Give the backbone structure.
Amino acid sequence: MIRSILLSALGFILGLIVGGAVNMGIIIGGGALLPPPAGVDVNDIESINAHIKEYSVLQLMVPFLAHAVGTFVGALLASRIAPNRAKVPALLIGLMFLAGGTMAVKMIPNAPMWFNTLDLCVAYLPMAWLGYMLANARSTKTSRT
């Protein structure tokens, strides 16, 4: 039982770290491919707020994809490490990333409502669930062979 708890905790922690790294990698790479509008300092929340209405839909898709893919990868990893491909570590990853997304919505109140809705409703808990499901689908296939 203690081994199970420790593996689940390890999966959760590694899921947060790796999911966060994937998130940041997409943000950095996406920012290189689709730079923010002129005059935006992406390290300054006030600068982002002042220019958020200038972002194109494609530019807004970068953070959405970062949030969705980061959550998915973190949840997949957490569930793969946890004994019996447990659901709880994967969904906890989704909840933690959702908390971060909610904080971002509060910090950038001028972001388009469609973006906030898409991000909060699709990028976190559904992606964590998908990560969990894929981890279990892969383990089911390997256990049948």
